[in-house]
Amino acid sequence: MDQMVIGSQVYPYTVQTQHSHCIIMNQIDGSSSLSGEGSKPVVKRRRKRRSKDSSATNDDDVAGIMLRKRKLTDEQVNMLEYSFGNERKLESGRKEKIAGELGLDPRQVAVWFQNRRARWKTKKIEEEYAKLKSQHDTVVLGQCQLESQVLELTEQLSQAQNEIRKLSERLEGMSTNSPSSSLSIEVNDAPIDFEFVPETNYNIPFYMEYWDGLYV
DNA sequence: TTGTGTTTTACGACCTCC
DNA sequence: GGAGGTCGTAAAACACAA
């Protein structure tokens, strides 16, 4: 059993001490954290913090030292973790039961669950963030690939436009008075057939230029 | 040993639900 | 209105590098 020496007094440092510590705490505070001020105006009152001074001798300071928070034992934490794994919320009866089994104040059990839920929530948020980041990175990568393809296709399109313009100019030079409804030319030894389809809606600029070139 | 960063315990303020 | 929740934070406990 650990001991805490305060002045001439030796205080046992055990689970029971932790239990007592909470009772003292509530008495000293003269308040419960669950007092619930409802919708009163927000008045942030800084609570008194416990002193770090261990050389104190008067009753209040001794109590303050007794109030020092104590780490829960591994066994207590394991039991609390197990309980938390079964159910993250803590109804009154269960809290009393756990507190009794572990020799803790019910308030300690409630606080532990509150903090545990907060840690769990933080972890969940971090996991969700990592998942979303991964998805985002995947989308960004896909976007880069698509942009690269767009550049490549734009370049190809530009080259094709140039080819067509050159051919158009050549055809213009060879043009006769009677327009033909179709014509056939070769580009790079590959035959390309053009067919005039008046009802087709060509709204791509270079096609319009091409037709304009043919039928000026 | 000591300075510093992180984790754990505890609390005050406020919110929600019954 | 009370019980129990979240949120933000203080302070003790702990880990660890320098």
TrEMBL record:
SUPFAM superfamilies recorded: Homeodomain-like
Location of region: Disordered: 29-61
Gene Ontology, cellular component aspect: nucleus
Keyword Ribosomal protein: no
Gene3D superfamilies: Homeodomain-like
Record-level GO BP terms: positive regulation of DNA-templated transcription; response to auxin
Main location: nucleus
Protein family membership: Belongs to the HD-ZIP homeobox family. Class I subfamily.
PROSITE patterns xrefs: HOMEOBOX_1, HOMEOBOX_2
Annotated localization: Nucleus
Domain called Homeobox: residue spans: 68-123
Function text: Transcription factor.
Coiled-coil annotated spans: 115-177
Alphabetized PANTHER family for the sequence: HOMEOBOX-LEUCINE ZIPPER PROTEIN, HOMEOBOX-LEUCINE ZIPPER PROTEIN ATHB-53
Keywords per UniProt: Coiled coil, DNA-binding, Homeobox, Nucleus, Transcription, Transcription regulation
Family annotation (InterPro entries): HD, HDZip_class_I_plant, Homeobox_CS, Homeodomain-like_sf, HTH_motif
GO molecular function terms listed in the Swiss-Prot or TrEMBL record: DNA-binding transcription factor activity, RNA polymerase II-specific; sequence-specific DNA binding
Protein name (Swiss-Prot/TrEMBL): Homeobox-leucine zipper protein
